[in-house]
Amino acid sequence: EPRVISPALMHGTSFSAPMVAGMAALIRSLRYNDTASTIAQSTVRIDSRNPRYYGQLGYGRVDLRRAVAER
Q1: Contact 26/42 with Cβ under 8 angstroms?
Q2: Cα(56)–Cα(45) distance, integer angstroms
């Protein structure tokens, strides 16, 4: 019988890394002339929503809709 993994059990970088890689690939396929830093500007800073972890959350959240619309 196949093993079912609950999404509630998947979190952190192990869960987010493949999702972000997929989003980055989609953005890159549409904006192939842009640099990585230009594409990174499509992220939304989340430090203000998580002041306890200020500066520890990387670039923030990927706004895929905005990144794709900016092409």
Answers
A1: no
A2: 11
